[in-house]
User: Fold these one by one.
Assistant:
Number 1:
Amino acid sequence: LPVRTKKRFSVPEWARELTPEQKEKRLKSLGTIFPEEHVERNFYLACTADIMDPYVPPEGDARLSSLSKDGLKQKMEKLRQTATSQLALRKVKDHVPDFSTKTFPEKAQEIFIEAHNSLANFNKQKLHSLVTERCYPEMVRGNRYKTIRWSFVESLEPPRVVHVRCDSVVNRGNLYGQVTVRMHTRQTLAIYDRFGRLMYGGEQVPKDVLEYVVFERYLVNPYGTWRMHGKIVPEWAPPKDPVIKTVMIPGPTLDPSQEYEEMK
Amino acid sequence: IHTSTSLQKFGKWEKKNRIVYPPQLPGEPRRPAEIYHCRREIKYSKDKMWYLAKLIKGMSIDQALAQLEFNDKKGAKVIKEVLLEAQEMAVRNHNVEFKSNLHIAESVTGRGRYVKRIRYHGKGMFGIMKIVRCHYFVKLVEGPPPPPEPPRTGFDQAKEYVQQLRSRTLVNTL
């Protein structure tokens, strides 16, 4: 109940609450307001985020000697394997008329060697031009205060194109082509930590390495280049060498009453 | 478009962790790892902190942690945290193999930024009080702690005196 007292004050005309119709009339008379459009920061996708349809390398690849029948068959496997590969290859050739499965692996190996050399020299500009943005942090993570020495000794088998895929991201015509190249090479790797002590590998120890390297190119861009996109590690790959130092793996947290031998 | 700024201004001690030595040849002795760590603007006096820093100076890291844990001062807790952080950093980032194989080569305190405030006394009198802060710097080196120097005996002093006498030469003569 409102208290009936002497009216001490009065709300002025302009502060009184309006009915909804009066409010609308007032807003219309002032003029239409356009909402401020924020200029969004636009970005440019130069590479895809992941390897599309990764190639599944057959078991026991490069294990059989080339003198047996099975070994020869493995070697002579051509790219005419899958229909999707053929389709993708045709699409790639539409956009890049110079592409051919016979000359590309050599160029791919050159790009591979150049990329690893510029990684060893920390030449960031060159590395960015040879390696896609997805692969760059994988290669460079943790290397800032370390010295890496890498050298390519020789290639044991000529590199081969093994898998081609072509896909679009976000919009329909936005084509990126990915080509997997199988390389069997001999390399030396030595990583030294901040104080010049050997952390991994050896300078004079060459290792045989079988790799499936994926190269990618932005097909729609006429100035695009083939760049290293990633590597496919098969499940049957032999385990890598252990690091030189001993690492402590923390065990389970125990109560003061428990013993470790009992837990096991 | 610049979207982020750096968190803090890096002082000289933090930058010492960034030097990279060239790889060692196989014949050279293994270079011991050095880890620099510090904590800035600790709310404690630098003179009081100095006593703790001098206590720790030549010890191995386990011994230092043990001594600090049972010390009653306020700075002991802070220094213990700093040492544990530095040990963690050493094992994770700087390729140190065994976490107890470290010893403390240098531990130093420095003056932080002081702030002046009014301290109210009776009868309308006041004093200007300083709010005192300090920095603490630590350098951990891989390897067992160096053996302590043997104290100078009278015999050493006598030997030095005799050596001084023997090494005198005649001046301004033929």
Number 2:
Amino acid sequence: MSSNMASSSAGSGDSSAARKNSKRPKYSKFTQQELPACKPILTPGWVISTFLIVSVIFIPLGVISLFASQDVVEIVDRYDNDCIPAPARTNKVAFIQGAAPKSCNRTLTVTKRMKQPIYVYYQLENFYQNHRRYVKSRSDSQLRSPKFENQISACKPEDDAGGKPIVPCGLIAWSLFNDTYTLSRNNTPLAVNKKGIAWKSDKEHKFGNKVFPKNFQKGNLTGGATLNPDIPLSEQEDLIVWMRTAALPTFRKLYGKIETDLENGDTIQVTLQNNYNTYSFSGKKKLVLSTTSWLGGKNDFLGIAYLTVGGICFFLALAFTIMYLVKPRRLGDPSYLSWNRNPGGGR
Amino acid sequence: MAGGRIRRRLNLNNIYAFTCRKSTFQEDHSQIGGPGFSRVVYCNEPNSPAAERRSYAGNYVRSTKYSPASFVPKSLFEQFRRVANFYFLVTGILSLTPLSPYGAVSALLPLGLVIAASMVKEGIEDWGRKRQDIEVNNRKVKVHGGDDGMFREEEWRELRVGDIVRVEKEEFFPADLLLLSSSYEDSVCYVETMNLDGETNLKVKQGLEATSSRLHEDFDFKEFKAVVRCEDPNADLYTFVGTLHLEEQRLPLSVQQLLLRDSKLRNTEYVYGAVVFTGHDTKVIQNSTVPPSKRSRIERKMDKIIYMMFGVVFLMSFIGSIIFGIVTREDRGGKTERWYLKPDEAEIFFDPERAPMAAIYHFLTAVMLYSYFIPISLYVSIEIVKVLQSIFINSDILMYYEETDKPAHARTSNLNEELGMVDTVLSDKTGTLTCNSMEFIKCSIAGTGYGRGVTEVERSMAMRSGGSALADDLNVAADRSGPKIEGFNFQDERVMRGNWVKQREASVLQKFFRLLAVCHTAIPETDEATGTVSYEAESPDEAAFVVAARELGFEFFSRTQNGISIRELDLETGKKVERVYRLLNVLEFNSARKRMSVIVRDEDGKLLLLSKGADNVMFERLARNGRTFEEKTREHVDEYADAGLRTLILAYREVDEDEYVKFSKNFNEAKSSVTEDRESLIDEITDQMERDLILLGATAVEDKLQNGVPDCIDKLAQAGIKIWVLTGDKMETAINIGFACSLLRQEMKQIIINLETPQIKALEKAGEKDVIEQASRESVVKQMEEGKALITRGPSDTDSHEAFALIIDGKSLTYALEDDFKQKFLDLATGCASVICCRSSPKQKALVTRLVKSGTGKTTLAIGDGANDVGMLQEADIGVGISGVEGMQAVMSSDLAIAQFRYLERLLLVHGHWCYSRISSMICYFFYKNITFGVTLFLYEAYTSFSAQPAYNDWFLSLFNVFFSSLPVIALGVFDQDVSARFCYKFPLLYQEGVQNLLFSWKRIIGWMFNGLISALAIFFICKQSQEHQLYNPNGKTAGRDILGGTMYTCVVWVVNLQMVLAISYFTWVQHIVIWGSVALWYIFLMIYGAITPTFSTDAYKVFLEALAPAPSYWLTTLLVMIFALVPYFVFKSVQMRYFPGYHQMIQWIRHEGQSNDPEFVEMVRQRSIKTTTVGSTARRAASVRRSGRFHDQLNKNTIAISREEK
């Protein structure tokens, strides 16, 4: 690519410019807009090689990503419907709000070996954790320090109970997910580690270790889970995870980790307490056991997308090559210029 | 002091024979004291209680837009008048309410920054005006200090009504003054009104005898008292009605006694005057209109885009609100009750029981959220860009004029891109195209041509054809050294340095030069130190004649009452002798007579009539025996005219005594008659006298074009810009100049519209106003219709190269510009290749400009140098002032000032094109990036059940426009060059891109917006899909809103900046820094912002270092989005560049490769790009080629036939 050519004035700025009090503009390549510059234009070479390079990079990346995703083993079990006793299914909301026992047993089969750590998630669907009213309904300062216990203005209507501030206040905390899972493999309990499921920064900086739940779920209506008032918020990892609101209405949240490998063919019994009401808004609940790869969970999207884009670019490289060969340019044919065809424009 | 008076005691009535200058009491004076005529001025006692009671305005003149007190409110108001800013103000206020989807600070801060930046810019601009005011108001003038007879220097601003001032030669008048007396006995003074009406000739003003007779010196004012009663301040420069009460006398005052502010005292040692109008009451300031604030076409279109964007925003908000309303209603204990939102305890904004209200409130919230569709920083960015562009224009070394030390100066930066869209240039003549100096360059004496000087026109034509015979002359002319004499550019050793005596026709030569030295009205001025004589003449060509005579050995050195004294060479003795010619009569020049004569008696007692005039009137007045050289002279005259010179024929005759006595008697009678046919009587008598002349020869004076004017006009014509000349000059002069700068050429059909027809003249003699008007109107309309018919018929049956030129004079223009006919006039004018309006008043210039502007809807540029061009400059879309040697009026009211007309070429073709292409790309890109950003917000909102939850953190939102995408777009606007300056010159037709507005067409705008939509869709859906289920990193953590927001935002920053990389065509280190810097800045910001306490950073706390950066999926997603979002544009651009290149893209190709390996092709593009022009020197050369050989025509026909077959 050519660099800029200095125009005729290049030499004119030297000696005479030194004259005193002259208003003569100072000469420099900058002020005369003659800076050396790269002036790229899309020549066939550039176009084709760009597409080729992209496809050369993208296709392998796609393959790697796809493999990573394929390596992940994931067991998903939707239980919201099945965990309602058949007779109660006509009015699920009444059931879930009622006092009947909510215990429910599920059996999962491991179809492929799962190496530890295996993550246990619950997945909610059609749950708008990203609703503006919901997102705003929290008090960050109150969560961080007992000093700000009374900063509850953002939390309405879940701000106080009988005039006393609720800690943690707000709709998010109030609607804390309260299904519980107890796992066992071949009738031996499978330990689910509930520590270390929250982001470190949340635990250390956003949720104070001197802040204890107060008046929580003491309002006229109980939302979700209750909290142990003796454990500081920084240790209430379920709450911390829950309060990092999800971006989309379908989301998973980490429940715990299984720190043993699961073998192919293992069956896992899950005893769960189906407490959480997703029925009133037709939300689904799922239990997910998943391993991870370097890329995260099971999601073929990135791999496929990379392969597709790489493929498209390869195709485009081909197409352009053919096009350039078959139809060599009529480079700069002035007849393209509309105003040359209609001489009305300029006299 | 008295010396001056004695030195020039001369009878001016002799010179200004026809001017009657005595004012009498007219009806107007009876109105004094009545309404509109209430001003009372107590001369020389401004402190008297009576004067103070009047409390007239001071002489302080203010041209600033703001005062210190009004600056803040007024400029704020100006800012919020822009609908976009107002919108942001409203959203800013709304953001203080609970409706807001984001924090108030993040909405108000960018608005504050933007408004502050704009206000600072306004402030700086106004400060410039303020400084000018200070300069003007602090000029010094001598003022009479009360009653002690002493004059002291005071600043202009201190002047009060009634003060007596003394103004010296070459000084400007500080206010409107009543002339009391001057250094001349009869209290005459000469005034140059260049700043008022642009006329360069001197005007004569004369004080009343009653005052001049008693006031001669400073001391005389000690006891002087007088009262002036006169009209109130008004804008009419040519009338003044007042009465002077002087010691029981009541004397009528007229405009003859009024010296106007900003005009200049010339040729007179000093005058005394009483201040009548001060400051803003003065006529010149009353005349000055408020400079219209001009906005460029692009900005006006941009407003439309903004309205369109408002439409989109409201539509999206509306859709969102409806869905939101429906969804919210569902929460009313229905099947989809989202209990976690506690709908039964919701405030009004989310209350399912009052869903319609909630929807309405949501609408407001959404409008705020989508405010990111409207680029808040657009205006301020454009302003910054334009200021920087102006700095580049100002510092362009190729537009710097060494001689006057003046660089180009963009006074307002609003109109830079408009420079790239100019369709019609309306140019003043004097001082703009021409230097306003006449140069005696050639003459033809006794049928022999003398003078080897080369005119600008010849030079330009010679340059073009390259290497012709003229090129040698060119070198000679260039080599010419030695002190250059102003007005004289005559080179011929046959007659120079007294050599003329050796010529065969020496006696004719002598008569010729003597005539030059005697037949004029110039006044000599001898510099006592050096003895050299200089001249003050009414017109510069007259000065050129006297100078020429002096240089050729006939030095006119004194004008007395008796006559004209000349030092000349005596043919017999060969010595210099002083001769006095007794001046008997001057037969003045006027446009009807087209000649002037003097009658003198030489020392031998012979009576001579010396005459000079235009060829058409002179040749018919020659005596039968005086036509010896007629044929040769005619040839020469035609030659000169073709070279763009102004010719005059010189002839004389001897008058016998009886004839003169008779003439003298008749002439004096006629002069003193008061009947209405006085003028025609004089005409008749002089006509009788100026007959039977003997031809001496012809002179050729170059109305010197400014350097490079023909070239520049040619280039502009090639760029498809139409050029109109609007001048106050005579028709002949204007036509001459038209020829000189190739706007007219020989075979062009001239359509001349004037009212010089015998019929009209006859009516004028009859003097019935209505009848004259009616007849004139009819005549003009008829002429226009004829012209139009000629044009429509024209090209079809005759040579297609035939072009038309329209020449119209001021009087006709008055009628042509009437509402009923102006469309007709415009049709006619646009059908002509050249339009020249002569004898046009400043007002007409402005009207014509307005007509072109509004009639064609195209961009007009007016260029001029004098105060008479002010109206035109202000009326045009762009006013360009020529910063000449003096007279700043035009520059002050212009938008841009350049030192020379020829810089217009660079200004338009290079800077104009660049600015246009930059600004239009910039605006397109601005909307692109904001749509990209805004649509991601909208899409995300759709996934939050339209609850107006933004996808990004508050600060991300507010800083997008300010930090992460602002600098590259500014760099685009300031530095980008689609085509380098060299190629702009080489392919002038490139300019048409601007004229046709191809780079800012709706197609392109919508295309860019569509591109933004594609980018946004790519960003949102790829990010959303890649984080589906939100299993995000190897540690099993899930991604929340913060992470999706962070990823999306990263993608947006990358995509818009990479899009910028693809869009620009000129990549300097500046671009590298700002583009990669913006991306880097985002990461740096994210880290810094993420590191501060979560109180402030909320959900962005540590989001990058902890969550995003360690996750490979984040980086992979970014890369994927980056490429995917840009592929459509890249494909589009590749195809377009290759197969459908725009004009600038073709030139880019040529620069890139074609230049070296395919010269034929380059030439082809170039040839085809240069349209066959009908004006300019290229066209003229082409025409002379056509004339020279008819076979070319044949050749052309063959080519056409061949090319048709090909098709």
